[in-house]
Queue: 4 jobs
Job 1
Amino acid sequence: MNRMAAYRIYRIVWLALKFYLQIMLFRKRHQGTWDPLTVNKWNQLVTKQAKEYKKAAQQLGGLLIKVGQFLSTRADIMPPTFLAELEGLTDRVPSVSRGKIVSVIETEWNAPYTQYLQTLSDEVVASASIGEVYKGILKDGTEVAIKVQRPGTERIIHADFQAFAFIMWFFRKFTPLDKKADLPALYGEMIRTIGNELDFLEELKSGRSFSDRFGTFPGVRIPSYYEELSTKRVLVMEWIEGSRITDLSFIEKHDLERKELAERLFLLFLEQVLNGGQFHADPHGGNILLTADGTITLIDFGMTGTITKADAQAGLRIAEGVIFKNYDQVLDALEELGFLLPHANRSLLKDAINRTVKMYESSELFQMDSLMLQQLLEDLQELVLTQPVQLPAEFAFFGRAASTFVGVLYVLDPEVDLLGLARPRVLEWAKSQETGGRVFGREDVLRWLLNATDPARALPQKLAGFLEEPDRFRHYLQRRDETDREWKRTLQTRTFAGCFGLLSFIGLSVGIWFEHEPYIWVSAVVLLGSLWTFRTID
């Protein structure tokens, strides 16, 4: 391992362990005093951490950028202030010299680039952490976009994956996070999704798949690819002359209708979800081009996700289960999708869903005073922390894509009615789906009509729930006090073990850097001992 890789691993691992220790110390100092002042201090801490992470990501690039974008989707495990700070994290980095790019092209083509191109632009068109795009003209006069992998990218990403493998191992062995998330699966999905960006042939396959599915979609275009000139590190595709779809001056200049563009773009995204298959996981304005005649062009299929037909049908069963109060069906579908791990407390989760649905139906959710709302939020927080509820990685990328996409839509049309646009298409889709081995038809329509009487039938149950609320609140306080005492018994010992572990890790890093073997061995033994002590504390 060279010094560059060792330095990257050290910076990334140290940043993660530092953040974890800060959070543990904060929780120790403020255990049982989660008042508005504490919330404000907590927000200050995580905002500071997010800024530090963002600075490190911009300095190091590589996987830190991608993981930062990934973490910005994980509302199930990351605080809102952390997400807000990372929202603007992009992978725009200074471009490398044109000579190095030409060297990559000629190595991949095993020939001078002039053998295939008349010209290659002097300036880079777009630059990111993995690839750079130049404009070229083929021998027959066809204009093409040439995406080239930055030199040294594979070595950087490989070192970063080693660092994150250690971080995942640490969190799995020594933190409660493993109880609420399938960390090995999460790491594997991250490698698959982000790692695929290193192979441009995978992007070519995805682009052609989108072309097959949406090539005839009205007003939509997918660029063609030149397979004979494309390799793992060089991708050649059709050049599209256009502007970002969020360029409102371009839209105004060419007299295009913003509302119609928003509707067409929304239906394009909706089709990716309903029919299963791949979806564009990075649909920001720069990856959606608009030509002068109003044609929408999707580009850059390096990051895609997959929604199967089974996933879509499970989503329909969740909606049906909520409507008809069949919460076992809801939990079964959530478990099938991977949102819920098998060892979850189903009765506790059913009760939480039931209470939330009741409050929503009776409008209590929007009329609660601050004390009751705080109790509800603390209940939900405890539920998330104690139960194996997770957002699967593939759905996290979908969540990021959806939020990014909705932002684009609202730039085009601030008054866009997403539900109004979706309703007729979703109903049409639902009627054609098999749910539980049968077709969604008259029987389901009858059940939906019967649901109209549900508020009256649920009145006795609501009254009983109201009478039971004081007992639930008392049980909640008892559970919270027991949790506080347990944390106070273990947190101090864990903190000392964590401090020794961090100090020995620093010593180990120094030993590796200066290649001092005795220092490496001593630090490694102390580190393993600290981790073992930390792990075995009850």
Job 2
Amino acid sequence: MNGVTILLGSAVIFLIAYLTYGSWLAKQWGVDPSRKTPAETEKDGIDYLPTRPAVLLGHHFSSIAGAGPIVGPITAAVFGWVPVTLWIIVGSIFFGGVHDYGSLVASLRHKGQSIGQIIDSNIGERAKLLFAIFAWVTLLVIIAAFANIVAATFVANPGAGSSSLLFIVLAVAFGLLVYRSGMSLAVGTVIGLIGMAAAFWLGHIFPITLSKDVWLLLMMGYIFVASIAPVWILLQPRDYLNSFLLYIMIAAAFIGICLYQPEMEISPFVGFDLGGGQWLFPVLFVTVACGAISGFHSLVSSGTSSKQLDNERNAKLIGYGSMLIEGLLAICAIISVAYVSADKLPELLKNGGPVNAFSQGTATFMTAIGLDFNLSKEFVALTISAFALTTLDTATRLGRFIFQEMVTTKAGANSPLGKAVSNRYVATGITIALAWIMSTGSYLTIWPIFGTANQMLAALALLAIAAWLKKSKRNHLMITIPMYFMFAVTFCSLGQLIYANLGKNWLIVGVSTVLAVLSAALAVEAFRVFGEENRINASAQAQNQQ
């Protein structure tokens, strides 16, 4: 089959879903443009700040995209392009989009608080603590995985590394000009885009060659600063400007695929069992991750985006629309490797990993537009690494939020230790230090834990949204069906990981066991509350009938 048919067909399906299913969800959840958002009622200029939709879309999309929709689908291509493509389309519309949008709306109804606080309000404080621990451990894995991928990308493409450093300086300048000097967003955007082009060219001419370990240390220093600085000076400007990179890359890839018209050379379907414990269920649904549904997205929706949304009418664009765009990017990713023959795919993935494979494939398509292959490949690598860095600083900020929530529970909020470690500098330092230790291995070691933990986090976030909708007496079937499926996927995957790594990799065994115990305890806690509420409702109905 031709890749153009798949790409255009997916784009049409996503557009129809946005206009129909997205609007239906807004009605079911009571989205109200006349209601003030937490960014207005809780405004503090640091975390809570009303933000233009274009800027917030850039932040949100940059944060959730990262390298996930590239690495996941390409890694899962070993099962064949048909199951991966089907899961990306179905998952983005009915799983990931609902999950992201629901997390955003639920947070808006709880003063911009995180999923953990939503669980506290609707299930209980003990459940909140369990979720906070789970989410924090998952964020450590996310930071470790993406830092490892970015460092490897910078080693393979030194120009992308030097350009990324220049982008950081440019983002700070943009923030000062737009938010403190009164420059209009339009003028600032033009200057910013010119600056990005210059930074890309300078990085291409003056590449910085460093070892992977040095890049890891530099990134840890950067995300420490980025996670504690006010959102207007680095987080928002960097994400907003970086979003243009991704828009340009997606557009170039889209046009390039249409002109190049690649055939899907890899097998449509390889089989349900690839050997070595690689079964289609649950491995496919864990590996694709961000390309269809990602628990990390719920932390972004409820952790930073809900605190910056200026009007609820924009919630569908930010929450649901961003996930559909990410789904389209995942479709581009699978096409970028599907044009090579099946026997060449393992070699392509071995030499540089999924990001390098995606860069090579997309650059090949971009030659159909008349662009230079080497320059295009460097641009694609820069774009993906820039978004992975965005994911890193957002994940670190969220890790700081959640760590502070954990140590400031009612039991320990006033203790000397609680006060000391809840300091934002200490909380950030602890989060980064542990993530750095985990990041020193190979991404292939971290990714299985990341995928499973990330998808379990999605199941728990759906559980929190379902609890809120149930308590609000609203329809929650669109949440509970994906929730049960994701619980089945992730519990199977955790069991599989533990069994396959016994006596081989105790890091995976240990982390998987901790995550399994935490998620099981939280699920039991939630369903206990659901059962009590059902009994109360049944008793009330019986009394009314009498």
Job 3
Amino acid sequence: MRFVWAVAAFVLAAVMIGAGIAQRTVFQGPKSVATGIAVHDTTPYILIDGAVLNTSSGTPTFRAAGDGPVFAAYGRTADLQAWLADASYESVTVGAHGKVKTTLVKPDAAATTDGTGTGTDATTATAAGTDTTSGDAAAGDAAAGEATGGGDAAVEGATAGRNPAGSDLWLEEFQQDDLLIAPLSIPATMSVLVAADGTAPAPSDLSVTWPVANTTPWAGPLIVGGGILMALGIVLYILGIRHVRRSRGPRRKGLPMPVTEPIDIAVDNAEKGVISSGQTGRRRALTGRRSLIVIPAVAVSALLFTGCSSDAWPDFAGSPTPSPTQTVVTQEGQNDPAVTESQAERILSRIASTVADADTKLDLALASTRLDGAMLAERQTNYTLRTAIADYKAPSAIPTKPVFPLLPEANDGWPRTVMAVVADKDNKTASIMLMTQQDAWSDYKLSYMSNLEAETTLPDLAPSYIGAPIVAPDSPFLVMQPDQVAAAYADVINKGDESEFAAKFDATGDQFRTSIAADRQKRLDEFNATGAQTGTLTFASAAGATAPVALATLESGAIVAVSLTETDTVQPTTGDAVIKVGENQTVKTLAGVDQSATGFTTTWGDQLFFYVPSQGSTEKIRLLGYASDILDAKVIK
């Protein structure tokens, strides 16, 4: 009976192991599915809609190959379409029945620099509808079907030559020969732009590959269970052999035998010259052979067990239940934020790198590619002074990260504004700055940057993934319109507590106002000590030429960035008096002379950030940060 059970165990083990191995091999199916994208080979740009990458489940892998380096970037579909508004390009979308189709889009004649052109369809080509499957992740090499129609007409009206590399619009970009992006998981609201250099035709060898989740949850239990049954069968087989050997067949009854004495076999054999190992030796030998049979069976089971990966076992744990998190509700109709956190850090790094290079070379044209408004005006003066004065100090470097917090404008159009607070670990300070992008083809430019005051508390801001709307300069929903803040604060600086606007601004912790008052008094005392009999020194503050920018906060208030100018005027009071600048190399360089019979004006530029509460609030307007630098010095005419 033991042999019967052993054979049954062997047969069942073979069936179970075979079934488990078959699930992991011949019955498992392909590991990936790939589809080719058919495009014309004459357009400089290809726009692949995010829905194309989501036509199959799983995380897609995108491949693009051409004759040289391949460029690819992804971003919001509306942004990419705006960037391509004045160019011909291939639009790859998902058509009826889930088929991938290619449409030639020609430039819109009405497309302008506001980036709102939409383009017009010209030719449609449907990609080969047959997906290719492969057991290898390299199935992305599947050949793309040939596009039909269009031909050479695909480039008609194209605006080629604009290289997409380095644009601030892209959330992420890639460039290399035989480009492979794995994984490339984007929502349907985003798209992928593929090009060579904007002049040469875009790569036409495009494919998308998705992994196929072919789990075999019972392969592991079958293989391991079969191994256990095989070991059990071997044990039963050994026990059967042992039982047969012990039985020695049937025993017969014989005639009565005389009683004899026990024979000492060892002595008898010794007398005959024979050495016998005895029955104990035979049993030990049999036991040793059985061990050799059992050990390989256990080893085979262990090898089969270790060969099963996690997808070969049932998932008894199930999917974890996500814990609830606090959410911020987006206002109905609100647009998407202008940038993401990683995008903002990349843009800041590019600005800082370009400006640092311009500062080294004293290249104002280079600086103007990344600076605007008050920031550019201050750089212009600094370069002039450093050209004439050898030891004049260079501007401080622009900090890049960490960014905390980030407040992008929620805007699908242009211009777009982004506010960021960046820490400077070296100087243990923090800077608040505003960047603006004028249109889809422009880079972001830094227009305002100030140092936060030591005890500054920022108001509550919307998360960076939601953004904030821009506040109109003449908004009546704040305690003061943004376009009036600069002039009102300048009046407070000029008149102090006697100003009609003094009660609207919080003087607590306003170090800027305090430092201006102390500096003016010090210089006035010094001037009066030597020149009060022959001249006058006056001070005046006024709103700057740079337009104010305001972003909304969660309390319906706004962070407002403004510019001010501070002007010092020195004039003689008698006809015989002459105003000399003395050792002041800054004024001498900017004015071009070291003395004047009419006097001098020296102008400083201030960049200020305020928190302006909402209408009806009991809070006052608070100064958040400030920066000041010389702008100009002139002879009074």
Job 4
Amino acid sequence: MATFAIQGDGFVYDGEPIRIISGAMHYFRIVPEYWEDRLRKLRACGFNTVETYVAWNLHEPKEGEFRFDGIANVERFVRLAGELGLHVILRPSPYICAEWEFGGLPSWLLAEPDMRLRCSHPAYLSKVKAYYDELLPRLKPLLCTSGGPVIALQIENEYGSYGNDKNYLNFLKSKLENGGMDVLLFTSDGSEDYMLQGGTLPGVLATLNFGSKPEQAFAKLREYRPEGPLVCMEYWNGWFDHWGDEHHVRGFADVVDVLDRILAAGASVNFYMFHGGTNFGFYNGANHIEHYEPTVTSYDYNALLSESGEPTDKYWAIREVIGRYAELPEEPPATPAKRSYGSVLMDERVSLFDAFDSLGGAVQSVVPDTMERLGQDYGFIWYETDVSGPQADCEIMLQEVRDRATVYVDGAYLGTVERWSGEDSVKANIPESGAKLGILVENMGRINYGAKLHDPKGITEGVKAGAKLYHQFLFGWTMRCLPLDDLSGLRFTPLSGETRAEEPAFYRGFFEADEERDTFLNLDGWKKGVAFVNGFNLGRYWEKGPQKTLYVPGPLLRQGINELVVFELHGTSSPRATLQDTAELG
């Protein structure tokens, strides 16, 4: 049993003064086999605390079906941190942002057309309550008041950037307190007036998120909280990338300067991020400020540890600064060298169109339904209908497609519609006999921040066909959900001869590994798709960059023969992949 509390303008742990120097790493972005390595490196850098979000969509992927095993075993992660001598800050808000799919909210919330998010809407609160009824009893033994390492819990995340519903914040606070969460509770917000007005609660520790100008930020907080600890709950020491961006890099000299000023002010700090990790699978989020921007697979974040766990120059520079304010422990554990497994010939193939039945069944509907209404969370969805003919120069218009659609007429590629491009249609010549229209829509990641958080996927309004200014809605659809969560039913055949241009297809190859070492998958010559190693979804790749390789953690491999599957949307000029020993992020 221990206590962590506010005393004056600081904190005490079991009655002794303590300054929190924390680093963020998310258990759900790191394979479990590497949790201990990353935590040891955090402690060796001088940090006394680790912070992590708790991702609701990971733990309740289907409503009422809970998961706390494998990469979702948050209890094991927290206990391991405690065994290594670290305190833990948990942020179990229903919403986490974090550049994570839908900000951590489960997609099935959007199956209800009148759902309102992050407010005291009764339907939303009932879902949060059911989740907390499962989660909080698991957290109770992990609290410092129960002998565990957790010293503080967040009520909501940057809520002042979204809304001002104090009834909602108080509902969450009451749920935590009534659930036995008898540790320090806090909120975290930006330093704008409206953010602090909307996101804080009386009697609850208010903390700030920023990447620069700590003096101005703390001065603003003091206008609202004249007394109490100063805490930067998210010190943004790097940044994330969107597809098509340049890779973000923030030099360590600037990061060191701001950290020194935070610590000199007597404040506590949590680095966001200490170690970013990876958006495996389809868990990357997206932003929509001026237009929709999906986040890349890597969450390297230009943090202190690289995506694959290597200490960076920033790590050593920050360690030196922390050493001026706290005693440094032992040197970090060594990181094993990465491996190059060489070229992999992808000499087996199956067209998506030939694989439909092995990936799932078909659903009929008058109108094209969204993924959520069909019970699908991530991946792709196929829409198919008939178009009558003849229609020359027929415009096929996709109304509110989310997020990227490839369009086919009688199996031949017609064009691509991207949500962010401003163009919503392609043209086709429909013969007198009519034609089969097929549309493959990719969910590129639900928006994780801001006013456009409500972000259903697929064709969200409808499809129209006709001449300019004169269109008719198309009805009578066949739909196929393609989450790609089980590829075991695919029937590959040897790759031979020409393949139809722009035909989406799965390619398979095998490679041998004599040891299970980290490596990086380079798909130079491929265009856009998803890669799988031994059935594990590594995430998306896209030739537009900035990310050029996918991280393959060693524990995903096995000694001997390994399987690589690539789902490519637009074909490749050279069906080979390379497993190399270096990452290429920009």
